[in-house]
Amino acid sequence: MNLKERISVLTKLGQALSHPDPKRTALIKASYRDNLWFTQDNYEMAIRAIADRMLQRSLLEEWVRPYPISGTMTPQTVGMVLAGNIPLVGFHDVLSTFICGHIAQIKLSDKDKLVLPYLIEQLATFDERIRPYFKFVDRLADFDRVIATGSNNTARYFELYFGKYPNIIRKNRNAVAVLRGNESLGALYDLGKDIFTYFGLGCRNVSKLYVPKGYDFEPLLEQLHEYRQIIELNKYKNNFDYNFTLLILNSKKYYSNGCILIYENELIQSRIASLHFEYYEDENDLLKNLESHREEIQCLVSDQPVDHWKHIPLGGAQTPGLDDYADGVDTLAFLTEAKTLMKH
Asked: Comparing C-alpha atoms, which of 153, 168, 173 is closest to residue 298?
């Protein structure tokens, strides 16, 4: 298949995802039974984002234009270890591999193993020629390149095992929000989407706030209270109760509205149902602090520009575009670069 044909079949999948599908819904419900974090609402949200932001013909054509993707490229096998923290989190990597004409050898996460294979089956109904481009495996073997996503802990094993091959190895990252204290109530409400979507489990979820000295948390707490239905999920509530108990036992100052715990902490990553914050004195202090954590920050949300950082408007973290690459590593550049490859 040439690039134009691959874009065409992906566009058809995007159109299909925009319509109800009883079989897809059944698989989503089965996924929820296996993983109670994967609610149907969250799964459908992920699918809508893929359909709207990744599988539109004009977006795909614009995305690939700068890259040397042609029929003369030699197809390679890309080993892929997918994460399972949020629904279909590895779809962009799979899409990138296919759009380049490579073969995706996919090791699914046990937490999310039903829907992606079905989406590939749907692609095959539009064009049978796509089948050889996708292989689902229990163990990677005979690959040319690797894209592996995991925690900081698993990344050490990935680097040991895959380090001699061209690779992208991803670690823990989170989003941060920079607030100035003059945000509108609507903007603070939108920030709740960045915090609560997928229960805060995604690498693009805001886990820490940077706020000016003397910041008034009350308007923020009131707007975030609009997301209080999140506490109805037992797994989330159990985390909230556990973290609340820890704060009480440690006599730590905190802010809460019944569905989120906000407390001062230098760390970027926070526990489920918790949100860290840190004060900054001035712009230089803010920039110095952000820079010291650059390798831990997936993206930055703010209503105003922040020097030396690409910023996303409050509420926009969970709808990444095709060129919003995880960890800032250009996946298409990696998949189209010329390197001496070694077979495993």
From this structure: 173
Long-range interactions of 284-290: CB distance < 8 A, separation 24+: 286/178, 286/210, 289/210, 290/176, 290/178, 290/210
DSSP 252-317: ---EE-SS-EEEE-S-S---TTEEEEEEESSHHHHHHHHHHTGGGEEEEE-SS-BTTB-EE-TT-T
- Yes or no: say if 314 and 198 are a contact pair by the CB < 8 Å rule: no
| pTM check: above 0.85 | yes
Structural domain boundaries in the chain:
3-171+323-336, 174-312
Cα angle value 301/239/264 (rounded, 5°): 50
CATH dotted code for 174-312: 3.40.309.10
Which fold does the domain 3-171+323-336 belong to in CATH?
Aldehyde Dehydrogenase; Chain A, domain 1 (3.40.605)
Mean pLDDT by 10 residues, the chain (344 residues): 96 96 97 94 96 97 94 88 96 97 96 97 96 97 95 89 94 96 98 98 97 97 98 97 97 97 97 98 97 97 95 93 94 83 43
> How far, in Å, CA of 15 to CA of 22, rounded?
16
